[in-house]
Amino acid sequence: MKAADCATMTDVRAEIDRIDRALVALLAERSGYIDRAAELKPALGLPARIDARVEEVFTKIRAAARLEGLDPALAEMLWRRIIDWSIAREETTIGDR
User: Which domain holds residue 18?
Assistant: First the structure.
């Protein structure tokens, strides 16, 4: 269903809830890759935070946001939080080794 197809607030809320569930599932999937990166990085001599990679992600996110009609500043703000959390998670895992 598209937003314009929603006839009631119940329809709108149901679609938002559906999207939220999908976003959570995607974030959980992404988290699994973060955990795998934390397992691989020590053997490669890589730190949790690689500034060039962080900037590459922001560049890609801003471009994707523009393509989808989302405010790139909003997308970057959200991804900064996600990346900060991801790096902290990696640092914890890498530090435990």
Answer: 3-95
Give the model confidence (pLDDT) of 18-73 as tens digits.
999 999 999 999 999 999 999 999 999 999 999 999 999 999 999 999 999 999 99
Contacts of 38-41 with C-beta under 8 Å, sequence gap 24+, read 38/89, 38/90, 38/93, 38/94, 39/93, 41/90, 41/94
User: Is residue 39 a known part of a binding site?
Assistant: no
Domain tally for the chain?
A: 1
Q: Is 76 annotated as a binding residue?
A: no
Locate the DSSP E strands across 1-97. none
Q: What is the CATH number of the domain that holds 88?
A: 1.20.59.10
The verdict on whether residue 80 carries a ligand-binding annotation is no
Is 30 annotated to bind a ligand? Reply is: yes
CB proximity list for 27: less than 8 A, separation 6 or greater: 82
Please, what is the angle between helix 9-44 and helix 72-95, to 10°?
40
